[in-house]
Structure formats: structure tokens, C-alpha cells
Amino acid sequence: MSGEPPDMTRMACPSPLPHHERIVVGHGGGGVLTRELIEKVFLSAFGNPILAGLGDSAVLPAEWFSPARGAGERLAFSTDSFVVQPLVFPGGSIGDLAVNGTVNDLAMSGARPIALSAAFILEEGLDVGVLSRIVADMARAARTAGVGIVTGDTKVVERGRGDGLSITTAGLGLVPADSRLGSRPPEAGDAILVSGTVGDHGMAVMSVREGLAFEAPIQTDSAPLHGLVAALLAAFPDVALLRDPTRGGLAMTLGELVAGKGIGIEFDEAAVPVDPVVASACEILGLDPFQVANEGKLVAVVPAAGAEAALAALRAHPLGGKAARIGRIVADHPGLVVARTPYGGTRIVPMPLGEQLPRIC
Amino acid sequence: MSGEPPDMTRMACPSPLPHHERIVVGHGGGGVLTRELIEKVFLSAFGNPILAGLGDSAVLPAEWFSPARGAGERLAFSTDSFVVQPLVFPGGSIGDLAVNGTVNDLAMSGARPIALSAAFILEEGLDVGVLSRIVADMARAARTAGVGIVTGDTKVVERGRGDGLSITTAGLGLVPADSRLGSRPPEAGDAILVSGTVGDHGMAVMSVREGLAFEAPIQTDSAPLHGLVAALLAAFPDVALLRDPTRGGLAMTLGELVAGKGIGIEFDEAAVPVDPVVASACEILGLDPFQVANEGKLVAVVPAAGAEAALAALRAHPLGGKAARIGRIVADHPGLVVARTPYGGTRIVPMPLGEQLPRIC
Fold first, then answer.
1. Of A24, A57, A244, which is closest to B108 when you measure between CB atoms?
2. Range of the domain at B327
3. Domain harbouring A15, CATH code
4. In this predicted complex, what is the ipTM?
5. Separation CA B232–CA B150 (nearest Å)
């Protein structure tokens, strides 16, 4: 029970999938059926000593969160529900989204993730094989991110009262005591970077929903970003702000960054990396790639003096190869995001009202 | 940002309820509508400086989890989804259940709760007035429990793809370094205590669903138990095990306690406190009160030598007035729970298969 969180991720192989079984309401009753489901489907995939204790809560060893190497670390805590449809799409599933989404929320605080919880709401009739495949995706994603899934819950709703499966994860992470991320807010002159192409995740899901066929299917970019963040902060610690542009895409993230504050944003549309296939798909469906969700990208606001060092650090990491400097914070037009178009004009980029794409994560 | 968690619970009054509004899919899109919903409904109820930061994750001050007064505290982490129907029932709602349920999971580890997350899955068409009422219940329950709701998420599913509202909470708590709870497993001779009447919560929900009318409606027992646990452990620290008998009731909790272990349980049916109205309702519906969910009760396994001190401590607390010593751990019949009936016989009490009552929490 001592040592570092990564100990927890030597997960056992999932047992053979119990195909042809379907979820019944009794699987959510907290009785023997619930126990069997947990043991067969969840423990075999996530298995680690803390989860296997099946206590009402996971108790983490002190070493996990107050390491001898220094006091003053802060705890980051985050949660996200996932309701994406379909449950499985090119490059991923609701399972790895549920892990990476919460890991990334922690990473945006500069935290190293240490533990996740996972709560499942299953609809009666869900195929247990599908569930097991998704749970295996979660286990793989947790292993990749180096976190253990240490506590969980399962509920079942009657047929027609849910949508197959929704997953809510919560996560804990540690922010190093000496983290300088966010030590001052974004200010005029700061550079805005994105870590790669935008719109991939949303279009991967949409292309399945709309039955679009491309030579190579658009894949989700779902990935855990804490390693990329660590590399960025090691190269340039004074990052003013990090955000992951998920629902509402880049446009929402930039809009929130300036909303109600005395700063604006100016960015160059042509500088924002967009995969050509994603761009085509967006055109076919009449969507703006800047409003489409990402699940493995970050937006960083850094002082201009550090922009090139930060960009180099992002590009040197496997998840940031296509990182780009796209614009800057300005004192003019506070509260507004203004894009320079490829045709030399400018346009105001609004925050999306709802989202173009419901049920994308 | 310094000081103790209770600082966080001086919550602002909710703003006037935006009645007559209904949830639309766009409220889940992560855009302006989501932001408005969060600000109007959630922030006004849960408002505290950490949540109001609206970061991707809440970053808790170091003082919250590594207080100067002693190293070696451990962190407890738990999660629970709530899908109860109806959303509101005598004495409570899904809102206070969602807070108390997770607080109690932490309390069963001997932890003092310090922070909660709350993730909402809303069905299109949900009345915002209903949502606001439930959110106000959560805020009140969090205040009572002395925890802040510091981070959250909101998703929306289309009409017919959800069931009004489900809430998933996760919680963090601190287990004192010197906690002796669970320092040895339950063993033959230990006494089994319950902190009060069983079956109240499940029958409060069922009586609404079944339209049963009694002179006084059966109220849920939903309550935060960490204060009761603290009082118990202060009086008698060497408690072997604490559990809250929620889904599957007392029968499930006792069954899990001995399942696969070399011990059994013997208890006296007549010693288990059951409210007479709950007993009548169970009789009418053909239910066993020992299998009905509780949301404000605990089961404690304590060495026989400490049983009377522990019982006295429970009884001295407002939430344990009807605490009772109901039985003991035995070496005979390992894995089995055996009840002495009021008629002098004995019967084996099985773990419920599913649950008699779906959607009870």
C-alpha cells in the first residue's frame, strides 16, 4: 500500500468477455448480481489492491499525496460525465474519453493525476460484451495515463430511461508546490498557442453518426495531456493559463478566456492547424472546425518572451508535433475574439450558444 | 484560500428560481447556454470561491489536506451515482441523497469529508424549477455536512434518453493519522450494532411510488453520518468495521461482511429497530425491511469488550438515539448470516439477488 500511484496500474488482463449477456435491472440493485457484475467486468479490468478492497471509499496511502519530498503540494479535483453517442467511434470509445477527459482537466491545473473514480449508469438491455470492451478501453487509458481507478459505483435504469451507458469519472491530482502555472492572469501581449490540429474528436464522432466515408476515417484525438503539460512547464514554467478546448471547441475556450475581462484576443485563422479531412468533413456538414470538440489538445497562454521556448517544447513532445502559435492577447476590444481571415479581413468569433454537436463527449 | 473547509459552506442564497424554463439540449453543449445554467442554477446555490473559479479542476489549498497538525493523514475518495425515482420524496430528494450518500461512504472509512464534486446528467425538458429545488437541497445538505461542492459538470441528453436527472458525486475526506478503525478485521465474538431503525429510506420512496397513505408519511432517514462516526470512534476507537446499509439493506451489508470469509453472523430479528409504520408498509407490499435501503444508518462491528461503550456513544448522538446491539460474529457457519426469529427458530438470511426495490438511490 505504499509507494507511487503507478504501482496501481499493473492491471490484470480482463477475463473473457461474458458475451450474449445483457444488463438487467437487478444488476443495479446492490445485491449479488451487482457484486458479480463488479467482479466479472470491472475488477478484472481495473484490478488493483485499493479498488479490490471494495470499501465504501478508497483510502489512499499518505505517500500518494503528501510525499516526503516536499510539503505545499496542492490537490486538484475534477469530475466529468460522458454521454457520447455512439459509444464507440474511430480511434476510441466512451471508455478512453472518460479517463482522458478527467485526466486532462487535472492536467490543465498543472497536476499530475494520481487516482480516478468511475461511476456507471447502465441501461437495462446493454450488452455486457459492449460494456466489457468499453471497460477494457478505460483500463488501457488509465494504464497509459499512469493512474489507478480506485473506487466506483454502478447503477442500472430501466429500458428507455437511459441511453445505453453513461460514465462519470472524478480525478485527483497533485500540483507541485513550486508550480508557476497561472501565477498571473493572461495580459495584453501574451501569445496563444494550440498543441495541434483542432476539430478531430468531434468530427470523428460526427462522421460515424452521419455515415460519412473518407479514404482514412477521422480518428478521435483522445489522449492524456499531463505529460505534454509537464514538458511544456519544464521548458517554460511561467505559463499564464492552460485550457483543453473540448465542448464548444477552440471558439468557446478563447471566448471564455476573455469573457468579462479587460482583454481581447486576436488570432490568425490560417495559423490554426486543421487536418484537411476534418476541414472537408466540416464543409460537407456546414460546421466550423473552431467550434468542434477536441479531446487531446490544449490551448496555452504564455508571455511573448517565452512563446518560442514553449512552442518548441510542445513540438518536441509526441502529442504536440503540430503545435502552433495562433495569436495574442490584446488590450483593444476587451471581451471579444477577433480572427484575421485568410482573405485579409477580420471577423468576430462568437462563443457558440449551445453546441453544433450534441452528445460529443 | 487558506483555512478549514467549513469556510466554503457559507453559501449564498439561491437566486430566484427560473421557473417555467425547461432544459434544452443546448444547455449541455458547453456554450453560452451551459454557462448561463451553471451561473444561474449551480453557482448561486453552491457558490464558493473555488467553484466560482470555474477552472477545469478545483485546486484545493494545501491546508485542506496536509494540515500542520500532523502528517500521515490518509485521503479517502469515493463516488456514487444517484438515479432515484421519484426525484423528490418525503423528507428529501435526489439532491440531499447525492450529498449524504458520498459523505457517508467517506465516513465509513473514518474520514472527515472535505470536498465534493457534482456531475449532472439532465434530460431535455426537465423543469429548471425542479432542478433548482434539488440543487438547493444539495447546497443545504452540503452546508449541514460542512463540505464544499468545489467542482462539477453538466451534460444534457435528448428527451427519452434519460430519466429527468441523475447526479454523480465524488468526495474527498481525511482519515486521521491515528485512526484505529479497521486495524483488525471482524472476528468471532465481536458485537454487531446498528445505529437506528432500518428500512426508512426505501419505504419513503416506495410509499410515494405505490401511492400508500399513512397517518404520518414515512420520511427518508437521509443524513450525513461522519459526526456520528466521530462520536463513536472518540468513545471507542477500536471499531473493526463500519458500513452503511444502503441498497440491499441490512441483509446485504451483513452478507457482504461474511462472504468468502471464515466467519458467520448470528443476529436477533427482534433486536433490529424497525419503525412500526415502516413495518406495516413492508407487510402491505410484501417486502422484508432488512432488505430495504437506508441512507442515514450505519452498521458497526466492535469487539465485545467495547460494545456497551460504543452503543452508549451512538445513543448519545442525535442520529443514533435508537441504536441497538443486534448480534455477533461467530466462528460457526462461515459465510452465513443466521437470524433468530421472534418465534424462537432460526433462518438463514440470504444476500438479496438484485434488489426488491429498483431506483431507490
1. A57
2. 191-348
3. 3.30.1330.10
4. 0.90
5. 28
